[in-house]
Each structure stands twice: as C-alpha cells, then as structure tokens.
Amino acid sequence: MSNSLAEQHSEAAEYFDKLGSSINNLMTLTDDEVCIGETAKEVVFRVDKVALYRYLPIDGVKPSEKKPLLIAYSLIGSYEMLDLQQDRSVIRNLLLDGIDVYMIDWGHPNKADKWLSFDDYVEYYLHDCVDYVCAQHDLPSISMLGICEGGVFAACFAALHPDRVASLALAVTPIDFHAQHECDADNSEVGYLNRLLRKFSRVELENMIDAFGSLPGETTGLVFLEMTLVKSLTKYNWELMDSLAGDRAKVLNFLRMEKWLLDRPHHPSEAAKQWLIDLYNENKLVRGEFELDGQVVKLEDLTMPVLNIFARHDHIVPPATSRALGAYLPSQTLYEELELNAGHIGAFVSGKANQALSDKLSSWVAPRGGRSRKAKS
Amino acid sequence: MDFMQRIQEQYHTTLAQMSSGLQANAELWADSHSSFSKFWLESVENLSFALLPMDSMPKFDALMGFDLKVKDFAVAATNLSIAATELQMLFLKIWAEAYEQYRPSSQDSSSTEGSVNSWLDNANQIVMQFQQSEQYLEAKKKYATSLTSFQTAYKKLVEVYQENNHMPTQAEFDDLSNSVYQLKKELRLVKKEMKSLRGVTGE
Predict the structure, then answer these.
(1) Residues 6 or more apart from A225 whose CB is under 8 A from it?
(2) A34 by DSSP, 3-state: which?
(3) Which residues of B fall within a CB distance of 8 Å from A208?
(4) Which DSSP category does A59 fall into?
(5) How many interface pairs between A and B have CB atoms less than 8 angstroms apart?
(6) Which positions in chain A have a beta carbon within 8 angstroms of at least one beta carbon in chain B?
(7) Which residue among A112, A192, A199 sits closest to B131, beta carbon to beta carbon?
(8) Which of these, A340, A353, A338, A337, lies nearest to A313 by C-alpha position?
(9) Taking a C-beta distance cutoff of 8 angstroms, is the pair A373, A140 a contact?
(10) Which of A90, A191, A201, A368 is the 20 to 30 Å CA partner of B181?
(11) What pLDDT, on the 0 to 100 scale, is given for residue B55?
(12) Torsion of CA B134, B138, B143, B146, to 10 degrees
C-alpha cells in the first residue's frame, strides 16, 4: 500500500476543502443563475400546446444561402438540451453559420392530451410547422433535423411528404428497434430498454399506459436512471462533491443539466402506445407496417439526402438501431453517417461532440437555390 | 506489511462479513415476506369467498361494488409487494456478487478515492450486465405488471369515492377530452377541405 498516513491526512483535508467549496457554491448560487435555453428566440406559430420558435440571427453574422432548418425534438425531455449553455449550444453554432433555425416545442401535455397520437404529431403539428416555415420563406421545401423520438417523427414526415423535405438529418434516432447490438463488457447497458419492452405483450403494455393515463415524465426519468443504476445511486452522494466544488462555471454546467433533467414532460398515452408497442415492441417501422392517418410509412420513400448521426456510447438508443436505417433507403439516396464519441445526451452537450455535430449538420442543410414556390407556380 | 495495508485488509474482511450477513438476512426476509404474502393473499381470497361470494351472485346495490374493489385493491397491493421484494432480493444478490468478484488492483488502492471509484466501476459493470439477464427482466416485468394492477385497482377505489362525493371521475374526464379531441380532428379536416376548395376556385 503506497499511501502513507500523511497522504491519508492530505486526502481528508482535500475532501473537507471540497465540502466547504460545495456548500459555499450552493449557498451563493441562486436558481435564477442556472439558465438554460438562453439563445434569443420568438414564438412565430402556435397550435394547441405546440409552439414553433424562430431563433433570432446573431448580430454581425451573414445569413447563409441555405434553406431554413426545422428541428423536432423528442416528446421525452425538453428541446432546450440543444441550447443548454452558450459555449456548447448546437443552436448557437448553427446561427453562427448563418442558418435560419426553427424549433418545435411540443409543450407539456397533460391528461387532456392523452388521445394525441403519432398521427397528430406528424401529420398535424409537424405538418403545420413545415407549412408555416415554407410559407414564410416562400419555399417548397426545407431542411429538417429530428432527434430521438423526434427523429422518428421527422423520418415519418419526410417519407410521407418527400417533396417538402430537401434534406433530412436524424440524430440518435432508433429506426430498427430490434437491431442486434454488441453486448460486451464495455457496453453491457446497451439495449436494456429494447430488451425489457419485448418481454411484454401488447395488452400488458396497453394496460400499463392506460393505468397511468400517460407515460409520466417521472417514470421515464426513473427508467433512464435505472439504466445506469450505480452511477445514478452515487450521483447525489459520492460524486456530488466533485460536481458542486470548484469554480462556479463548472458547477453551473452541472446544475444546468440538473435543471434540464428536471423538466420531463408527460408523454401522451396514445402516442406512448405507438412508441412502446408499435415501434419498440413490434418494430413496425422497418417492417413497413407503421401507419399514420391510414398511410403506410415507407422508409424507401426517403429520397432526399439523409444524414444519420448516432453516438457510440448511447445506452438509450443503441447505435445499431440507428445505423440500420442505411439498409432501408433506396440506393440513389445520398446517405451519410456521423458517429460521435459520446452518449445519448453527450452528443449534444459535450464540447467536442457538440461541435462535430453542429459542423456536419450545418453542411447538411440544403442550399436555398432552385425555384421558390411562387416561381414554381 | 505496513499499517495501512493491514487496515485495508481488515476493511475488506469486515465488508465481506457484512456482505454475507446481509445476504443471509435478505434471504430470511425474502422467505418470511413470501410466507406472509401467501398467507395474506389466501386470507383475502378466503374472506371474500366466505363473506362476499359475489362473483356468481347478484351484487348488493347499497355497496355499489365497493367491497369487491377493496378486495381487488388488497390483492393487487400484496402482489405488488411480493414483486417489489423479489426485485429487491435480486439487487441484494447481485450487489453481494459484485463484492465477491471485486479484486482491487494495487493501482486502485493508491488512494481512498481511487479505491471507492474502482469498486463503484466494478459494481456498475456487474449490475448492468445483470440487468440484461432473463432473470432480472422477468422480475422487472412482474413488478411492472403488478404495479399496473395496483394502479388500476387504486383508480377504481378512488372513482367510488369521487362518485359518492359528486366529483368528476377520470373516466368521465376521458370521455369529455376524447369528444373534444374528435371534434378538433373533424374541424381540422373541414378546414383542410375548405382550404383546398379555395385553391380550386381561386378565391
């Protein structure tokens, strides 16, 4: 054993320093200082609880000659993950490249919204947002980014309306929910949710969602915590000192993530049934059986350029379930993949991954070019 | 062997003893809980069979089915408790296994922080691997389905209270919200048709 008594004393002293620093930080910081989603934006369109934001251009940045980018986030969690802090904001990076960025905020559904389904989210809310952006810019089509469940929304919309999407980017989006994944010692948590949900029958899952009237945000939060159980158990004790001690900038990073995690909207019941049963359990999307408003979603109709972004250490959406998309696209589709050395959330908030994602995404936004809608008609 | 090394060995021995003691107690607790739960379930079933054999009999109006709902709730709560205990036992088992498999390297034990982090990484890996096992997934499924039954039985009891106190129930609210949802959908279709008609007539 190499550590002497003196070293033990030094460790103890260091621990008490950390404790003092943590308490000091907590006592002096206020919740108002923990700000997320600070990039300036305005609501330009609203329907029911859904709001469409347009981010304001950054002063001095020349607008690009590209189409606007519409971003659809998942119903699980808040869109502000893309703009947690100024120096790691995908939104800000895109604005600095002169891209016109629109974001859909799905709002906070409650029990009155339990009947909302994928059909409504894709063919109604998302469709209306696309119509709005196209009309504002006098364009027949725009570029679209979908994230996680929002990626499934975007893929479905693009497959049903390929003429409205000039280029499509999907990030950490499951497509083949049963795709095989590695299960070695380094990523043993991968695919837990996929495996667990396949244990249930359709009726069992329906009963489960009906019993709660929705997929409560607290429940999805607990499921995510369970996926990395020991890490979750030590987050607020053993690791807490490291998170709260030290300079304020570092502490604020930690608290911003906590603030984002705390905001977990409930998932409407009918949409949750499609997400967990039709997709996770029965894998209908790749089987060509997933229907929205009576139309079958065919992945082979994704004829626009498709960028598929996934994270190597994603324990929520295993990379294999995203990468599978390539096999379902027609051969003429321009298809590219971007693998990030990060996890499901780290892909958007870690310094390196965030920049790599933003740069690639920025290059993927379709050039404005071509004819405007008016010119076309 | 220096002083700190002896202390560390003593520490590991103590932890091993605690771990085996904990496991033995956990098994005892699991057995007792299982026996008690079975006894309780049988009692609830027997009592309801003896006093309220209403599944095959006409219901008593004055009770409005409350009695059966209480019975269902008691059964669901007991089943949930059984499933939760089984899941807890699995966690205790895997936690003990994680300890047994843990072999700290000399590098890990160069500081207290290093030792604890090394132990936690080891436990994390083992717990996550275990979560992929059929045994765990089955236990988790049993817990989730028991929780569903419990929540359903609880909701039914609450609805009895709401009805008796002239309060709207969730089922009534669902009827209402579904009507609004359907109306909105129809309105949306009508608007869409009007828009396309305006396009055709050039208005």
Answers:
(1) A232
(2) coil
(3) 144-145, 147-148
(4) T
(5) 103
(6) 1-5, 7-8, 11, 48, 111-116, 120, 124, 183, 185, 188-189, 191-192, 195-196, 199-200, 204, 207-208, 210-213, 226-231, 234, 238
(7) A192
(8) A340
(9) yes
(10) A201
(11) 55
(12) 170
- Separation CA A30–CA A248 (nearest Å): 12
* Residues written for chain B: 203
Return the residue matching tokens 């604005």: A95
Long-range contacts of A227-236 (CB under 8 A, 24+ apart): A227/A189, A227/A192, A227/A193, A227/A315, A227/A316, A227/B128, A227/B131, A228/A189, A228/A315, A228/B124, A228/B128, A229/B124, A229/B127, A229/B128, A229/B131, A230/B120, A230/B123, A230/B124, A230/B127, A230/B128, A231/B120, A231/B124, A234/B120
- Residue B156, token pair as written in the block: 């039914």
Taking CA B126 as the corner, what is the angle to CA B120 and CA B129, rounded to the nearest 5 degrees? 135
Residue A48 tokens, joined:
């029911």
> What is the number of residues in chain A?
377
Q: Do B123 and A230 touch (CB under 8 A)?
A: yes
pLDDT along chain A (377 residues), means of 10: 68 84 88 93 97 97 96 96 93 97 97 96 97 96 98 98 98 93 50 89 95 92 88 84 87 93 95 97 97 97 98 93 96 96 93 94 89 39
Distance of CA A207 to the CA centre of its chain: 27
The structure tokens 């907590």 sit at A26
pLDDT of residue A205: 96
Sequence-distant (≥ 6) Cβ neighbours of residue A131 within 8 angstroms = none
Q: ipTM of the predicted structure?
A: 0.84
Partner residue opposite B177 with nearest CB, options A115, A228, A231: A115
The number of helix segments (H) and strand segments (E) in chain A equals 16, 12
Buried b (16+ CB within 10 A) or exposed e, B47-59: ebeeebebeeeee
Contacts of B125 in chain A (CB under 8 A): 185, 188
CA distances from B139 to A196, A201, A315 (A): 10, 15, 21
Predicted model pTM: 0.86
CA distance B75 to B81: 10
Q: Cβ distance A328 to A300 under 8 Å?
A: yes
CA–centroid distance for A143 within its chain: 17
Quote the tokens at residue A124: 């109604």
Cross-sheet strand order for the sheet of A101-105: A41-47, A50-55, A101-105, A69-72, A142-147, A165-171, A306-311, A335-340
Q: In Å, how far from its chain's centre is CA A176?
A: 17
pLDDT in tens, B54-77: 555 555 555 556 667 888 888 899
Question: Can you give the C-alpha Rg of chain B in angstroms?
Answer: 29
